[in-house]
């Protein structure tokens, strides 16, 4: 990408968490781009939640998966890093080795941010991995019935209509969470910001609700691209259209900051989804192209679907090809293109 008269590798910042983020990062890693992954630190489920409760560190699971996606280590090393104990031992059962390593380094380095930078070097990570905050955060939600709940897993399990979410410091209740400066610098220097794919309320918004992260995403000159989920999620986005996803993002940040939306239009075959195995999936996200345009977004619709293991997921290569294609187009933030 030309910057003045000089060529530089396009800088792509991907913000999110959960299982969708590594899918995109694995494909982006094969492109000639400078990747920064900003990863949520508000997870409280599974092995991550148990470790967090015992040793008061940022939940490491999402960071571990992103690190494996961007690592250039041989596959055997990655398999060991990702290995999850199936022992019946009360302590080790269910824990991933990588989670324990990240937790240990967090204690050694007195914080998750420096720990992840150290481990990224050890893991030969191609890119940058930045925890959204240098401390564990709690996700809070207010529902349509005006009740509130704290905790990412509890919010999803409540199966109620979410009105809004926000984050708070787990260790410093009177302190407003903030991202460290390298996170903000990466957003402001980016050529493209990618949100998702991932759970709207529990993977994407927890990052944006950190005040200086949200402000940076609104102020950056980079094009902001939202990868809309293929399936709605139980307890979060049931009956949502693609326009509903954007509306919620804009309402939370009080600004129309999303420039472009990638929407899958390939239908998921009837009876294909195993809803017992993928119990968080509800049904396909409906399309509301008029609503998306009313939100000020450019809409790119295509076949981004990958069917595997009786579930519906994004095809990382197809999505990445579109992201790279967008880098060569005039910015949607230019009013002449809106």
From TrEMBL:
Main localization, broad class: cytoplasm
Assigned keywords, A-Z: Cytoplasm
Matches recorded under InterPro entries: CofD (IPR002882), CofD-like_dom_sf (IPR038136), Gluconeogen_factor (IPR010119)
KW Cytoplasm (keyword) present: yes
Pfam families: CofD
GO molecular function: LPPG:FO 2-phospho-L-lactate transferase activity
Stored CDD domains: YvcK_like (cd07187)
Subcellular localization, as worded in the UniProt entry: Cytoplasm
GO biological process: regulation of cell shape
GO cellular component, one term: cytoplasm
Coiled-coil blocks: none
Signal peptide: none
Functional note: Required for morphogenesis under gluconeogenic growth conditions.
Family named by the database record: Belongs to the gluconeogenesis factor family.
NCBIfam families, alphabetized: CofD_related (TIGR01826)
Protein name (record): Putative gluconeogenesis factor
Organism whose genome encodes this protein: Secundilactobacillus malefermentans
């Amino acid at each position: 990408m030309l910057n003045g008269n000089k060529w530089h590798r396009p800088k792509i910042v991907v913000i999110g968490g959960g299982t969708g983020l590594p899918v995109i990062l694995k494909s982006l890693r094969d492109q000639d781009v400078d990747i920064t992954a900003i990863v949520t630190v508000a997870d409280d489920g599974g092995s991550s939640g148990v470790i967090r409760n015992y040793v008061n560190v940022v939940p490491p699971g999402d960071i571990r998966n992103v690190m494996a996606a961007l690592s250039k280590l041989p596959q055997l090393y990655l398999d060991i890093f990702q290995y999850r104990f199936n022992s019946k031992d009360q302590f080790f059962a269910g824990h991933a080795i990588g989670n324990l390593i990240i937790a240990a380094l967090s204690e050694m380095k007195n914080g998750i941010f420096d720990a992840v930078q150290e481990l990224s070097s050890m893991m030969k990570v191609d890119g940058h991995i930045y925890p959204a905050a240098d401390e564990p955060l709690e996700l809070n939600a207010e529902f349509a019935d005006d009740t509130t709940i704290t905790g990412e897993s509890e919010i999803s399990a409540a199966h109620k209509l979410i009105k809004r979410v926000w984050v708070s410091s787990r260790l410093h209740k009177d302190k407003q969470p903030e991202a460290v400066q390298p996170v903000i610098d990466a957003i402001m220097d980016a050529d493209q910001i990618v949100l998702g794919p991932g759970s709207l309320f529990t993977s994407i918004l927890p990052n944006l609700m950190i005040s200086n992260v949200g402000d940076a995403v609104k102020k950056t000159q980079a094009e902001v691209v939202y990868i809309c989920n293929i399936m709605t999620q139980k307890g979060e986005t049931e009956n949502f259209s693609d326009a509903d996803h954007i509306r919620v993002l804009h309402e939370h940040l009080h600004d129309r900051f999303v420039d472009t939306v990638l929407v899958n239009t390939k239908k998921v075959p009837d009876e294909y989804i195993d809803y017992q195995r993928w119990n968080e999936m509800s049904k396909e996200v409906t399309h509301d192209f008029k609503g998306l345009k009313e939100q000020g977004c450019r809409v790119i619709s295509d076949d981004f679907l990958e069917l595997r293991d009786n579930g519906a997921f994004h095809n990382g290569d197809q999505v990445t090809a579109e992201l790279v294609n967008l880098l060569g187009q005039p910015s949607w933030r230019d009013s002449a293109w809106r």
